[in-house]
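Exercise 7.
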Amino acid sequence: VLGLPEPAPTLAPEVATWMGATEVGNPITAVLLGFRAIDTLLEAIVLLFALIGVWSLAPDRCWGGRPGLLQYPDPNGMLAYSARVLPPLGIVVGTYIFWVGADQPGGKFQGATILAAMWLLVMMAGLADAPQISRRWLRGLLVAGPLAFIAVGLVGAITAGAFLAYPPGFAKPLILVVEFALMPTLTLVLGLMLLGTP
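Solution. The predicted structure, written as tokens, is:
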């Protein structure tokens, strides 16, 4: 630690030089979905496996049921009031943070975290129940994001010569497809992981 080089090594000039190829304005998005897209794909898959790991802790008799504990809060209490007032604002903020992520700080992980927090607040207040993990639509949404990401990677393999490469002129639209596909998956994974076992 005492012998670190001065100045510290950085790849920032390389990112700045090649960022135009990704057609996005945010250097973090350019790195995560352009230069290190395989890492981002694996992160989404690892989160999905972590959720399956949490679910696997449930006893066999509970498998397929609703995750988390049933909530019985006061319907006129402060938690229920907050769960009625905050989610519309949180949905707008989370969607905005997701939307600007291609060109400004933000993105799918940050937006999904806010949306998952709003969903958890509503469930903790007893205003909605968690979906049963045996539902096909839920399982479909959980795998839709990574599958769309893999499909974009295969498109790159066919059209640009490498897995997760983007053909010239199509980089930003394909990055946005990946982000739109991952957003609901990440929201569900984060919320369901925090709810726990069925």
